[in-house]
Specification:
heterodimer; A: mainly beta; 4-stranded antiparallel sheet; 0% helix; globular; B: 106 residues; mainly beta
């Protein structure tokens, strides 16, 4: 059974940094492209970032480009999201999700999410 | 950016009845459209992809149709566990989601 567990969410001040982790189990992690998706309170989801199986190629939504960095460690079955220069509007539940059915931004399996709150 | 517009915002339907949810894209997607279900406190769950293909384990009462800019999710004979928020998502050009339709018990 595919399992994704996010961690690292916290309360942080505007301008601060945070690193989220996603730990995978139940499948061959290195065979899957991965994504980060967030969902602000009461709103729809928003795709943030994509990473290929090897980790060599990454893409970002304009809203986080230059501030967030996605990475992965296949030997540890883990993916990360380094978030810098956080803004109040970055407040959301952050999910990691697998790319499904051979399509990069079709989100097949999701973790339970981790809450990031940006506030002074 | 492709804008996804869902209607209605809230849909009230009785158990056992049919529900029809709509999604419109600001530009043509071909068939690169998915539907997700989300219950309170849970992550979204993939229901339909490629506009009309059910994801693994999704019951046959869920069906999707449409192409281009107009899409529909139909749930025949609503069960109690189907009352939730539904999102459409385009993946033709990266990804954007609609604002959601809340399906509530009438």
């Amino acid at each position: 059974e595919v399992q994704l567990v996010e961690s690292g969410g916290a309360l942080v001040q505007p301008g601060g940094s945070l690193r989220l982790s996603c730990t995978a189990s139940g499948f061959t992690f290195s065979d899957y492209e991965m994504n980060w998706v967030r969902q602000p309170p009461g709103k729809g989801p928003e795709w943030l970032s994509f990473i290929t199986m090897s980790g060599r190629i990454t893409y970002y939504a304009d809203s986080v480009k230059g501030r967030f960095t996605i990475s992965r460690a296949n030997a540890e079955n883990s993916m990360y999201l380094q978030m810098n220069n956080l803004r109040v509007e970055d407040t959301a539940v952050y999910y990691c999700a697998t790319s499904g059915y051979g399509t990069g931004t079709l989100f097949d399996s999701w973790g339970q999410g981790t809450l990031v709150t940006v506030s002074s | 950016e492709i804008v996804m517009t869902q209607s209605p915002a809230t849909l009230s339907v009785s158990p056992g009845e049919r529900a029809t949810l709509s999604c419109r894209a600001s530009q043509s997607l071909g068939s690169n459209l998915a539907w997700y279900q989300q219950k309170p406190g849970q992550a979204p769950r993939l229901l339909i992809y490629d506009a009309s293909t059910r994801a693994t384990g999704i019951p046959a009462r869920f069906s999707g149709s449409g192409s281009g800019t107009e899409f529909t999710l139909t749930i025949s004979s609503l069960q109690s566990e189907d009352f939730a928020v539904y999102y459409c998502q385009q993946y033709n050009n990266w990804s954007t989601f609609g604002q959601g339709t809340r399906l509530e018990i009438k």
